[in-house]
Inverse folding.
């Protein structure tokens, strides 16, 4: 398996896991009466949105870095919390852009080291391949944190597993 084949699979997995998690977060009911349970649900939903937005912002920052372009972010989250549907649409669009980027990248470009500046002003240097792996690992880590938030309000989080994605998207692998 080539690096680009693996990256294509990993970014398809990322898009699938994002879609599953957004659907789960959308199921949090914050519309009923305002008792302690509802306050906990609203707080959990807000915390989940903050984490999902953080993943998105970091994905945007690294997408700009991959292309050696400037970005407008001064931190790894935004002051405002976006609406779930708006964030989901933005994430889906960026997931598509990442997959398109990987489809068109050469092995030499993957290996190229890129200098960039972190949002705290520190300098960094990573290969494009390392940046792409960081995006995968970072998102997986924080989706797990969102899953923990969901568990705390008695909502079963989706099973964010690469193996589940492979067997769901390619059922013949089960044989």
């Amino acid at each position: 398996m080539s690096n680009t084949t693996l990256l294509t699979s990993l970014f398809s997995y990322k898009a699938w896991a994002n879609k599953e998690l957004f659907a789960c977060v959308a199921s949090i009911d914050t519309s009923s009466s305002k008792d302690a349970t509802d306050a906990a649900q609203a707080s959990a939903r807000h915390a989940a949105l903050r984490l999902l937005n953080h993943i998105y912002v970091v994905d945007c920052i690294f997408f700009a870095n991959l292309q050696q372009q400037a970005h407008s972010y001064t931190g790894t989250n935004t002051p405002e919390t976006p609406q779930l549907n708006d964030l989901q649409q933005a994430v889906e669009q960026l997931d598509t852009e990442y997959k398109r980027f990987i489809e068109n990248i050469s092995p030499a470009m993957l290996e190229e080291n890129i200098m960039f500046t972190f949002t705290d002003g520190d300098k960094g240097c990573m290969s494009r391949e390392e940046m792409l792996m960081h995006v995968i690992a970072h998102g997986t880590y924080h989706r797990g944190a969102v899953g923990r938030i969901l568990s705390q309000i008695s909502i079963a989080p989706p099973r964010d597993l690469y193996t589940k994605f492979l067997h769901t998207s390619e059922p013949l692998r089960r044989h």
About this structure: The chain has one domain: 3-27+35-174. Residues 72 and 113 are 22 Å apart (CA to CA).
